[in-house]
User: Which sequence fits this backbone?
């Protein structure tokens, strides 16, 4: 309250009637000035302070609702609840709660999407789908108002109050305590710091293992190619040595001659001009010639690097198995690395969303305090008055 004192001293020569008229005129002028000042002050508070503060609060609430996945005022379902006038007279006191909700759900076309937290209603309000509503539905009511009336009718004196929220244009019905809990947990919860640290350390270990495996595979692959190239070179050298070996050529010629003699001897035996014993003796000579040819080839192979080629082939077989195992392990590392990176990305998103929700809540709290303070100022304003003392 603001008190202002104005003193007016009149001389004794001033007639009483004139003084009285002067005071009455002064009071009227003062009251008019004070009323105008109050009106300007009121307009300044309402339009210059309160409405901007309420606008900031509405914006902060919208940001918080968006961060938490709650449909803000202005969503399709919100407009339907606030704007659609419907007839709910089909709701009777003997109707089960679930049936009454079905009437509300289908009061508009397309029907509303309603999710009821039945477990919460049963645990905290002792309400089931078959609980009677004990109310008569109004014949003309805004859809949102009708839903509130139904929920209020279901409340018991010793139980939690019921409420609803719009989340992604879906109406969620539960006790108000549970809805508050949903608000606190809305959005993606941030990952524990220990979990994020463990994921990061695992990623570094996987990356290190992958790099080491890639270097091992690269070295093994280079050795594999070099050995193959050396084997090919040894094969060429062995081929040249065999081609130039005169003893081998003589042994091969001996084998061919013995083959021809065996064929000729077989014809003679068939004609009866040679004995079977002679044919057997000829075949034994052919067999001995072939054995000598094989022995000489083996000796040539050993002298031309055949044993080294065999050793190299054994090493290549072992390397092939080892490379296959490492590639399989690399695939396992890649799969786990992808999973870890996805989880780290989710943790990053979760942390960002959690911080966004926390910031939005702080903005709402600040805006709410500002609106409350301004409304308190408005509520404390008093009508201006003028009191005349000592006028008689």
Assistant:
């Amino acid at each position: 309250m603001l008190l202002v004192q104005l003193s007016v001293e009149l001389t004794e020569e001033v007639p009483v009637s004139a003084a009285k008229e002067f005071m009455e005129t002064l009071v009227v002028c003062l009251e008019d000035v004070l009323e105008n000042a109050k009106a300007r002050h009121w307009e300044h508070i309402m339009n210059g302070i309160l409405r901007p503060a309420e606008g900031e609060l509405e914006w902060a609430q919208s940001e918080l609702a968006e961060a938490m996945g709650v449909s803000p005022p202005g969503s399709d379902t919100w407009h339907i609840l606030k704007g659609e006038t419907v007839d709910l007279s089909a709701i009777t006191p003997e109707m089960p709660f679930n049936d009454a909700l079905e009437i509300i759900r289908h009061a508009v076309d397309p029907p509303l999407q309603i999710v009821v937290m039945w477990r919460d209603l049963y645990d905290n309000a002792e309400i089931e789908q078959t609980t009677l509503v004990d109310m008569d539905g109004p014949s003309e009511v805004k859809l949102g108002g009708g839903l509130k009336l139904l929920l209020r009718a279901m409340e018991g004196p010793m139980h939690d109050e019921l409420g609803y929220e719009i989340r992604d244009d879906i109406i969620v019905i539960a006790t108000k305590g549970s809805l508050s809990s949903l608000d606190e947990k809305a959005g993606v919860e941030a990952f524990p710091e220990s979990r994020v640290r463990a994921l990061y350390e695992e990623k570094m270990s996987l990356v290190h293992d992958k790099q080491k495996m890639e270097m091992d595979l690269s070295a093994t692959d280079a050795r594999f190619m070099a050995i193959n190239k050396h084997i090919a070179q040894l094969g060429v050298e062995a081929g040249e040595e065999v081609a130039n070996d005169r003893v081998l050529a003589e042994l091969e010629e001996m084998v061919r001659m013995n083959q021809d003699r065996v064929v000729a001897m077989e014809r003679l035996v068939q004609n009866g001009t040679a004995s079977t014993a002679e044919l057997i003796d000829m075949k034994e000579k052919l067999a001995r010639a072939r054995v000598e040819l094989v022995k000489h080839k083996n000796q040539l192979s050993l002298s031309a690097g055949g044993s080294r080629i065999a050793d190299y082939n054994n090493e290549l077989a072992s390397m092939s198995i080892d490379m296959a195992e490492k590639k399989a392990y690399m695939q396992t590392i890649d799969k786990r690395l992808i999973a870890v990176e996805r989880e780290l990305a989710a943790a990053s998103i979760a942390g960002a969303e959690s911080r966004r929700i926390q910031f939005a809540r702080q903005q709402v709290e600040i805006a709410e305090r500002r609106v409350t303070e301004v409304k308190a100022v408005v509520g404390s304003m008093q009508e201006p008055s003028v009191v005349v003392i000592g006028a008689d």
Observations:
- Residues 184-189 have pLDDT under 50 and may be disordered.
